[in-house]
Write a structure and sequence with these properties.
The complex is a heterodimer. By secondary structure, chain A is of the alpha/beta class. Chain A is 39% helix and 14% strand. Chain B has 7 helices and 4 strands, in the order ααααβααβββα. Classes of the chains: A alpha/beta, B alpha+beta.
């Protein structure tokens, strides 16, 4: 018999280790034949630690469980999945029937929270390495074609078609090529990369291996942020296991093909989520951005053609290969195909991971899944897409989660993080923070970002202090226009999004006279600058 | 954590210097061993990977992670990014700073705590989030922060 207690970092942060210890103690004291499995998280964080019991009728969930509640659960017969368990407020019924999970379309996260992350047999028994098996029967051209046809776009945020990027690398002749996974998930409100690396690391290894075969790269690196020590440990161990079992190395799965993989730690620099900074950092340098061209697909890591893809993009490749491009493409809307891993965060009642086909509205995500604010106070604003994403008011909540629909509202989907704020938020302070964050994290390469962000903080301080407010709002507008147009990458180039959207949608927080001209955001038809 | 030791540092550097892009792995390994990257490591790394001392210094100073001085006995990383802001992290941070008499980025006078600002720990559905000596905690109110600090002090 198996009992599951997540080892996901978020579950640990609310006491999962203590719960696992308490269960192990009860099992020993009662001389039961029970194995405690440390799985990843199902992504329903308000229920963590979420304990599951394997029963004849499938897995039954209890949560949020505390160590103190564990003896009572045993007394009440929770191992048999009994509902009378203390008339248990913790009893949630069959896990798969919990509406939050049931309403999702889990493709990339099909195994996360179900399997033991470091059990290769768990992985293989649940369709793991089926994608690679099929990939091994295909030519590199056909592989790239399949990914292109799936409509998969970069899940880091820029939304660039993954297949097109791969094609460039495939066509570039070189003695060495690289696959680099961008696991520098720095956006506040996002944790999908962390969850999959902690909960189903082999899917990322498989995706990178397939990418390697598709473009002719024999070496890969995962660049992982240092703020994720648990994911680092899990990835390191999973890579060691994959080597041991012949899924990495000189002869991958007996194919005679080579793929090496290593995971490297970042060092607390947000800018290293920008792909060229990331490459500099991997090379052991300051994480300063490189001007493009040359594209990393032509001159990337150590000057060689390099695929740089986000964790979720790469972790989605195995299911595309397994089920086919058509299957994947049938999810989604418009030019946003497949699923988006939405991360509900901040002041939200039911925060968690929601994998859904593109197209659900922000309102559905925040209310139907998220249940509104955590505080119970009225909703006031939402920031989608991390610290460079726009702040949206109530009136924009019917915007569907779709790259183009968001761009049309001068926002960005980004990596899918949704941070909710209640009515206590002060948008002038949030705008100030956006500039402050840019100043702290700027790599210093270009002037609009390096100097503009610091000037931005000063100008907003003057606006807040009511010094020449009208004049300073105009200065802020000009400064934002300059940063948008003149920055080398998206840090400086997108910081104006949260700032200008705050001014535009929440003018009362800047005590702005109604006669101000509208803010110059990106021009109509102009694409979201490509980053992450 | 060990006090700075040039021989030990040289051994660590030698072990890693052949890696492609070895500088960050070396710096992480040194910090893991000594709690910070001593100034004396700069020429050693420069020599080992064949770059200038200025370049090594440039790398160390670029990244927020690398410390230039030994840290306190405990490290409390407090997230101050947007998701945690929406749940009132500023009040918690303010409380902890006052309680410990140190600001984010500083170490307490008695050397017991180093306080660090971080921008996202990836625990954004359970904000405010902190990490104490590598262990994550979610839903951290001022009271929870007090409990964590008291607990660490009790065990000291």
């Amino acid at each position: 018999m198996k009992v599951f207690v997540p080892c996901d970092m978020a579950a640990l942060s609310v006491g999962a280790d203590a719960v696992a210890r308490a269960i192990t103690e009860q099992v020993a004291a009662r001389r039961l034949d029970v194995t405690v499995v440390r799985n990843g998280s199902r992504g329903m964080f308000w229920l963590e630690p979420l304990v599951e019991v394997e029963t004849a009728k499938g897995r039954v969930a209890y949560g949020p469980v505390t160590a103190e509640a564990v003896p009572g659960l045993f007394e009440a017969g929770f191992l048999e999945g009994k509902t009378h368990a203390l008339d248990h407020t913790l009893h949630l019924g069959p896990t798969e029937e919990i509406p939050y999970l049931k309403k999702q379309e889990r493709l990339t996260f099909a195994r996360c929270g179900i399997v033991d992350p470091l059990s290769l047999s768990d992985y293989v028994s649940r369709d793991g390495y089926k994608g690679l098996q099929r990939a091994l029967t295909m030519t590199p051209e056909a592989l790239v074609e399949e990914v292109t046809n799936s409509g998969l776009r970069g899940r880091g945020g820029a939304g660039f078609p993954t297949g097109i990027k791969w094609k460039t690398v495939l066509k570039t002749v070189a003695d060495q090529k690289y696959i680099v996974c961008n696991a520098d998930e720095g956006d506040s409100g996002t944790y999908a990369d962390r969850m999959i690396m902690e909960g189903d690391p082999f899917v990322l290894i498989e995706g990178m291996t397939i990418a390697g075969f598709a473009v002719g790269a024999t070496s890969g690196f995962i660049y992982l942020r240092s703020e994720y020590p648990h994911a680092f440990k899990t990835m390191k161990r999973a890579i060691a296991i994959a080597y041991e079992k012949g899924y990495l190395g000189e002869n991958v799965a007996g194919s005679g093909k080579k793929f090496d993989l290593d995971v490297r730690l970042g060092a607390g620099a947000y800018i290293c989520g920008e792909e060229t900074s990331l490459l500099e950092s991997l090379e052991g340098k300051r994480g300063q951005i490189r001007p493009k061209p040359p594209l990393p697909a032509i001159e990337g890591l150590f000057g060689k053609p390099t695929v740089v893809n986000n964790v979720i993009s790469l972790a989605t490749v195995p299911i595309i290969l397994d089920k086919g491009a058509e299957y994947y493409k049938n999810f989604g809307m418009g030019k946003s195909r497949g699923t988006l891993t939405i991360q509900l965060a901040g002041n939200i009642k039911y925060g968690g991971l929601v994998e859904k086909a593109f197209g659900i509205t922000l309102r559905e995500a925040i209310y139907d899944f998220g249940g509104g604010t955590f505080s119970g106070r009225p909703f006031r604003a939402v920031q989608v897409g991390g610290p460079l994403g726009a702040y949206f008011p109530e009136s924009l909540l019917d915007t569907p989660l779709d790259y183009e629909a968001f761009a049309a509202k001068k926002g960005l989907v980004g990596h899918g993080g949704i941070v909710v704020f209640d009515d206590t938020v002060d948008l002038a302070r949030q705008a100030r923070f956006a500039m402050e964050f840019c100043a702290i994290e700027s790599c210093g390469k270009c002037t609009p970002c390096r100097i503009g962000s610091t000037r931005g903080v000063e100008v907003i301080d003057r606006i807040i202090a009511n010094q020449d407010r009208t004049k300073n709002l105009q200065v802020l507008d000009d400064l934002c226009e300059l940063m948008l147009d003149g920055s080398l990458c998206a840090l400086g180039g997108l910081t104006p999004y949260p700032v200008l959207s705050a001014v535009q949608h929440f003018p009362e927080d800047f005590d702005k006279p109604a006669a101000m001209p509208p803010s110059p955001m990106t021009q109509p038809g102009q694409e979201t600058p490509s980053w992450r | 954590m060990h006090t700075w030791d040039t021989d030990r540092a040289s051994a660590i550097i030698q072990e890693l210097q052949q890696l492609p892009g070895a500088v960050l792995p070396i710096l992480h390994a040194l910090q893991e061993e000594f709690g910070y990257v001593d100034e004396a490591a700069v020429p050693l790394i420069a020599e080992a990977v064949n770059i200038s001392k200025a370049e090594v210094h440039g790398v160390i100073s670029f990244y927020h992670d690398f410390r230039h001085h030994p840290p306190g006995r405990h490290t409390l990383k407090m997230c101050r990014a947007e998701a945690c802001q929406s749940m009132g992290c500023d009040r918690v941070i303010d409380h902890v700073e006052k309680r410990l008499g140190a600001k984010l980025g500083e170490t307490t006078a008695d050397g017991s705590f180093s306080l660090d600002a971080v921008y996202c720990l990836g625990n954004c559905a359970l904000s405010p989030a902190v990490m104490l000596d590598g262990k994550p905690y979610g839903r951290v109110s001022a009271q929870v922060a007090d409990f964590l600090i008291d607990d660490v002090r009790r065990r000291a």
